[in-house]
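tool=predict chain=A
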Amino acid sequence: MTKTYRIGVAGLTHDHVWGNLENIAALDSASLAAVADPNQPLVDRVTQQYGCAAYSDYQEMVRRESLDILYVFCDNAQGAEVGAWGAEQGLHVLVEKPMAATGAGARKLLAAANAAGVRLMINWPVVWRPQVQAALAIATRPEFGKIWQLTHRAGHGGPEAECSPYFSEWILDPKRNGAGAIVDMCSYGINMARVLMGRPQSVTAVGAQWYDPPLPVEDNAIVVMRYPNAMATAEGVWGQVGHPTTGYLATIWGSNGSVTFGPGRGGRIWKTTK
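tool=predict ok
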């Protein structure tokens, strides 16, 4: 008999949670058992739509519910703490990207999962788009050749235009988010470069505050990653005009071809060869 995994969700303030709740509801192999968040309007929204159990405290949720998996969708700083605690309880853990607000938080989360012997997953929602999966498959085939450059641009209209009040409240906090556009947007390209090209020799980042009035964190940034015989750039933008048509664009160059992909959920892919 196929097991049905019971999922509990800790935190509802990250706007990406809503798409994930829809995905859980569509699964035969998993069910949404409970959610936990101190913001009652968010909890009410979930219970009205999905009819699951609800709590204001995630630790109480885990103690009272028989869970297999913990989804974490609170702010980046708290997310690492919640994820590590969940792993210590023996739960498999999914944390919404990025991994944490700090390197120390990420290391603590990873160490907790390794010590407990549970699965830890960081959810990078763009990666699941078909055109991104297709591009990564092309770029990792032997005939593509050695990857020598990656450029990735992630951008949207900014927190005021794209984020709910609950999300905006912490994404503009440098301690709870970890930074601004670098963490929120550049992280996509950094993650992809790390997977495709490994650990860089050096990293240079430039951030800017162009909002008027200025935000507490950088709203535009470029990160350059240097390798022995390659380079990668990750651009992160809040406040651009053109999202989603120019929101997530990337090109991977190999010695025998290139592949460009994006943007959006219905994005396209362009492939070139010698």
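The chain has two domains: 5-123, 127-273. Residues 181-197 form the longest helix (17 residues).
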